[in-house]
Amino acid sequence: MLVWTISTLLLYGVSAFIPNAFTPYITDKDFTHQDLTEQGILLAVAEYFESKPAPGKSTPPTAGSLTGISNLTARKLFDAYYGSYVPETKLQSAIDDIVNYNTRVEHENSAKAAWHFNGEQITQGNDILLRLRSEAFDALNVSQPNYATARHVIGQYLHVLQDFYSNTNWNKINPSSYYSDLGIPGKTLRQVSGPSEDTCKNCGQTLPCLFDPPLLSTTKITSGYRSGQDIVKPSKPTTDTQGKCSHGGKFDTSATTSAAVGGINKETVTADYSPLFQEHGAVADLAIKHTTYFFAGQTNGLRTVFGDGKFEGLLQLHAGVSLCFVIDTSVSTERDAIRQEIQKLISAGSNPYNYILVYTNDGQTSPTVITKTNGNDILTAFGSINIASNRSCTFSISGTEAAATVAEYGSKMYVFSDAVPRNDVTIRYIQAMQSEKDLTISLLLTGQCKQKRSIGNWSILSQTKHAKAKPFHIYHQFLVQKGTHWIRTSHPPTGQRVVLSVRISDPATVLGLHLIEIANFKKALRKLNRSRIPGIYLTLIDKFPDVENFVIFVEGFDKDGKTFRVKTQEI
Question: Is residue 523 within 8 Å of 516, Cβ to Cβ?
Fold first, then answer.
């Protein structure tokens, strides 16, 4: 069976919480770095939404109405906050970006104990957090923030931060609260156990560590040593009853070759991998709360430091429509009339998220697309148009298509054209673009060519919104083996053994996915049953096909049981 094949392939040791949902020995009760990061960010966003009214509403949601949603997802959060369909894809994309850089730490720095707070590298791990926090905040502390860089660094920061809880004894020192001073400049850390100080007693030889707690210290911070990392556990005969703690689990040889025997990691709910497996849920809860605190803390949280605007920018929280203007006319003398109409539409007070101007200058073969957040900037950009005077009096689809590609969901588009679309294929194509993004596309005749209307006599030909089911998006990623780890790649080498995962943005919108297609290659999908991150499917490709520029399609069944086939997007 496929699931067992993938299990054999993906088996590898980790240094703390499991990276993501694609690890084979994971159970539905395990919290991965992906879970911790998604839940922590979504709770920070939910807190933010509870502080401000949704568009069109006068009061904010009641406290706890959003943060209390069970198995919180971006889709559930947006549905509860906005009350009508607003796409969550940009927020989910920002979260995925952070998650991807979080999980990369596991294979890029797995042998470095400080990156996981292993080997009592508490001060060194805190130094890494301070450096990463500084780099992320530097990327944000400018007039034009580099949000992509900030997300990448924050992903690494959160991995290190979250590992603190699975690998140290913090939950014995303070079981009810996260360590808010960790990774914060100017804070003095709690005392760390000394180099010669025994921190654990043997466990797991006659009784599981569950019934014979190994930790000796509940006042000083300590952590376990793990074989294969750059900090080696001080050697003591296994006949000794006490010594330094090991990380523990079946991948850690130090847990059986040097006292103290056993281990203290809490990264899974499985005893074979985590000696203190019973504490996994409690430390995961602390890690989620600390992740939320990083973004939303009252004093040191990112939103408090940089304000709502940059918080929204980092997580791509903006929700709104675009106001689009497509210039498809051949008569330069109409410039003033077109400008007046654009100015009137901008002044109507719709307050869109952004403005989009699309035009094709004389000599250009493809449209120019200009996106601005200020309407006056669009009027200024309009002055750069150099309309060809010898263009044919036919409707061009390219500008409309370019605007639809970059427009937000539910946007309004005004197309200034010499001619109406006459071809049935063109008309159906416009209707398809309307339907895909719920656009309102209005054709405004410029009055030239055969129409002979006077300049400024605008005729709105179409303002139809086509009813459709709630949209969904499907994302994919490839995982290829590198040493003992599996890492993401955009294009696997030909002949490489590959795990392909796909994820649907809103699993409730479909009955299921069953097939992927790459070029002429098809493979069945199997669902990964996880309640916290639903909608994930996997397949194993023994030999990746010899294809260059490929597109991935997924087939499945919609809520009515009808088959659909859609193109995926790379995470």
Answer: yes
Residue with tokens 């689009």: 324
DSSP 80-100: HHHSS----HHHHHHHHHHHH
Residues 168-177 have pLDDT tens digits of 999 999 999 9
- Cβ-Cβ contacts under 8 Å for 311 (sequence gap 6 or more): 48, 295, 302, 303, 317
Of 519, 491, 503, 487, nearest to 556 (Cα)?
A: 503
Give per-residue pLDDT as tens, 97-140: 999 899 889 888 999 999 999 999 999 999 999 999 999 999 99
Burial, 186: exposed, middle or buried (Cβ in 10 Å; 0-12, 13-18, 19+)? exposed
Among residues 264, 204, 193, the alpha carbon closest in space to that of 238 is found at 204
Peptide linkage before 467 cis (omega within 30 of 0): no
CA distance 534 to 21: 10
Question: How far apart are the C-alpha atoms of 180 and 190, rounded to whole Å?
Answer: 12
Q: How far is CA 297 from CA 41, 44, 275, 362, in A?
A: 12, 9, 32, 54
Residue 192 gets which letter from DSSP?
B
Which residues are within 8 A (CB) of 196 and not within 5 positions of it... i.e. 6 or more apart? none
DSSP line for 461-497: ---PPPP-PPP--EEEEEEEEETTEEEEESSPPTT--
Enumerate the β-bridge partners of residue 355. 323, 372
Give CA–CA dist 162/37, Å, rounded.
9
Give me the phi and psi of 563, to 5 degrees please: -75, 135
pLDDT at 10 over 50: no
Q: Is-contact 152 132, C-beta < 8 A?
A: no
Q: Is 169 within 8 Å of 123 (Cβ atoms)? A: no
Q: Side chain identity at 394, as an amino acid letter?
A: T
Calculate mean pLDDT across residues 431-456: 66
Q: What is the DSSP letter of 460?
A: B
The total number of residues shown for the chain amounts to 571
From residue 564, give the alpha-carbon distance in Å to each of 405, 553, 558, 568.
22, 10, 7, 12
pLDDT at 8: 29
Helix (H) or strand (E) holding 300: none
Return the structure tokens found at 224: 């376990």
Question: 263-298: per-residue pLDDT in tens?
Answer: 999 999 988 899 999 999 999 999 999 999 999 999
Pairing of strands 510-518, 552-558: antiparallel
Residue 223, classed as helix, strand or coil, is strand
